[in-house]
């Protein structure tokens, strides 16, 4: 017996979620209550050279297989118990030839390097050129494509790596490539195509109730857009290279796991695989229906609750996800994307390109960093925990009214990798205001706190901007690595002025991916039903009730906004001088 269908039903149903982030592939197994049974991760290779950031799909698949086998072993889950699988990944661009082998996207010519990573900024000028055409599709991504989306990257490859361009048989988002590698089915997700490729998902509104919607022909491509920007060859063969068919996230692909993929993963051939999600969107699916006790009392309906929330998926970067029943056009914020996360809802997606990455950068490049790391290791605590303790002591020693006030002389604009939203300026630069000759651990602790605050002011800017354009966000949910940092979460609650719900299970992106598998194996009638069954709230972090803290952050927020305006003014002053 080689397929999942032929085996007798075991005592429990387990759902497997796989998430490929920037630095690792992770696998998690969840039961029918959404409880994590076990997880494992495996590192993946990354090449960075200036604006170019690349990975290898071969290396990633090996890491996925290792993580899945390890998670099953740790959780003591047999292949018979795994009822469905879902994949989530960063929105990186994968190039493969007709045999499915990697095609290089690297100046180096290294054939392993066939992925342009999401954070790669080689195509800034190509994004500007695409935006200059003012195509109608651009209104569905905040008014313009970002260099982190796929069309600018594709244009870069066509113009700079002609041999690779002619060899590529399929261009795929990484999460679509993973499900293709697992099932042999080339159907693309509405999540990836709509959010990163300018696909117009609302072309499928009338197909919402159809049973065969997983085989939907891709009718949402705007051929004129591709012709206009110089990529008309991607329209050929009914868009064969970029996606001939699309499906709602969670729809079952092909005949489930192929025999070869099943063997590599240590699972059963035929195990259902759900159409994939981008990692941040999987985080949204993993937390968005987490209900706190007060929710059920204050909101009129489930729709009201869902549409008053924003999910922060905070890891290397932060994505800000909110849904609405109506389509809302918000300048500088991606979307509205129809059914790209929760079916039948429009998605608004804000973001900050470097958050966890920025905190690491600030800490690791400080002269006190090695001393701090050694002290943290000897005390058996994380560097973040140690920095928080240093800040506590500093507040006591200086009789500071509250910890946040320690940064009264230090202000940070966190745009070290540009501004994704809401000003949508990839050329924006980071600013640190208030430096001295001090190189102590205490000074690093202040920098760390001011950076967290700068990131939180950026989130406040996004929330205010979305609410000014029709959203009614009054509650945040947080998941991802940074959500496990209490100082990061409390500063966000105080600065944005909203309660923050943390999920019961800390691995929300893995849960979101596993939910795709639960839908694919027909355990739930819809993605939304699965979310309601498997999402669960944990701790709720409330904003401080101290009016002095609010007044302080309001003042710092004005300075934060001013730092960007000053940068624009400085930019034009220098441009005039060099003209």
From TrEMBL:
<dbReference type="GO" id="GO:0016301">
    <property type="term" value="F:kinase activity"/>
</dbReference>
<comment type="similarity">
    <text>Belongs to the FGGY kinase family.</text>
</comment>
<dbReference type="InterPro" id="IPR018485">
    <property type="entry name" value="FGGY_C"/>
</dbReference>
<feature type="domain" description="Carbohydrate kinase FGGY C-terminal">
    <location>
        <begin position="311"/>
        <end position="521"/>
    </location>
</feature>
<keyword id="KW-0808">Transferase</keyword>
<protein>
    <submittedName>
        <fullName>FGGY carbohydrate kinase domain-containing protein</fullName>
    </submittedName>
</protein>
<dbReference type="Pfam" id="PF00370">
    <property type="entry name" value="FGGY_N"/>
</dbReference>
<dbReference type="InterPro" id="IPR006003">
    <property type="entry name" value="FGGY_RbtK-like"/>
</dbReference>
<dbReference type="InterPro" id="IPR043129">
    <property type="entry name" value="ATPase_NBD"/>
</dbReference>
<keyword id="KW-0418">Kinase</keyword>
<dbReference type="InterPro" id="IPR000577">
    <property type="entry name" value="Carb_kinase_FGGY"/>
</dbReference>
<dbReference type="InterPro" id="IPR018484">
    <property type="entry name" value="FGGY_N"/>
</dbReference>
<feature type="domain" description="Carbohydrate kinase FGGY N-terminal">
    <location>
        <begin position="15"/>
        <end position="286"/>
    </location>
</feature>
<dbReference type="Pfam" id="PF02782">
    <property type="entry name" value="FGGY_C"/>
</dbReference>
